[in-house]
Amino acid sequence: MRSFDLTGRVAVVTGGNGGIGLGMATGLAEAGAAVVIAGRQAWKNADAVRRLESLGPRALAIEVDIADAAACRNVIDCAAERMGRLDILVNNAGVTVRKAPQALSDEEWERIVDVNLSAAFRCARAAYPHMVRAGGGKIINIGSMLSIFGTPWAAPYAASKGGLVQMSRALATAWAKDNIQVNCVLPGWIDTDLTRSAREQVPGLNERVLARTPAGRWGTPADLAGLAVFLASPASDFITGTAIPADGGYSIMG
After folding, report:
1. CA pair distance 184, 169, nearest whole angstrom
2. Helices 225-232 & 19-30 angle (0-180, nearest 10)
3. Which end of the chain, N or C, is less packed with Cβ atoms under 10 Å?
């Protein structure tokens, strides 16, 4: 369908070299978008680019740690310069630690909030003038079920992901006049390296997830691809400021 066609569009996906980020980047490439991967690990970046290029559209990677405030603007400007424009930003990069709140150091709190929330704002702010020049744009912020729920072992992660939802709403209201839509995706329990380590560290997690999820399984990164295409495409031009769970029904269970 033409309303889902991303041919000629350019997307930047932070943390797009694996997991949910690569699942979304793959969906965008399949829909015709050129994709720029922003990630820290060069070998993972290279693998991701090869995978995306095999789908047809142009792809490239920029090695960057978005915890560096200046790097956020640099990676966005570099992507727009090398690709000629910028239409889509997926703020996916994120980190966490699993500790009780009283065991967290100031440094751990600050790094998690900085990477998950502050860097997303900086990238969005840097993307804004490029999207204005392009006549509009799409920003997709990756939140979490912990934007909704509480947990005893992820206070800074939950705070940062909850903040992403409210930031998305604020940016959506500020930039609607510029034809920029800003939405948030709240992934459920998706099978990634991050959640595999959670299953190792949190006894009984796998069993509890399966018992509560109506779909009866963990999600996969590919389960996020279609949602990414929808929110990045003209099909969602009248949708902004939303927070959409993608969790197999986990969040609707009592």
Report:
1. 9
2. 60
3. C
> Cα–Cα distance between 135 and 88 in angstroms, integer?
12
Helices (H) and strands (E) in the chain, counts: 9, 7
Q: Low-confidence residues of the chain, pLDDT below 50?
A: none
Residue among 77, 81, 79, 88 at smallest CA distance from 9: 88
pLDDT tens per residue across span 113-150 = 999 999 999 999 999 999 999 999 999 999 999 999 98
Percent helix, strand and coil across the chain, each rounded to 5?
A: 55, 15, 30
Alpha-carbon distance 97 to 115, whole Å?
12
Please list the residues that pair with 89 across neighbouring strands.
Answer: 12, 139
Residue at 28: amino acid letter: L
Active site residues: 157
Give pLDDT tens digits for 58-73.
999 999 999 999 999 9
Q: Is the domain 2-191+222-246 a CATH 3.40.50.1370 member?
A: no
* Confidence (pTM): 0.96
Within 10 angstroms of residue 72's Cβ, the number of other Cβ atoms is: 26
CA dist 47 to 11, 95, 120, 209, 226, Å? 18, 21, 24, 30, 22
Tokens of 99: 């500790």
Residue 48: partners with Cβ closer than 8 Å, 6 or more residues away? 16, 17, 18, 22, 25, 37, 39, 59, 61
**Would you state the structure tokens that stand for residue 56, as one six-digit string?**
């047809």
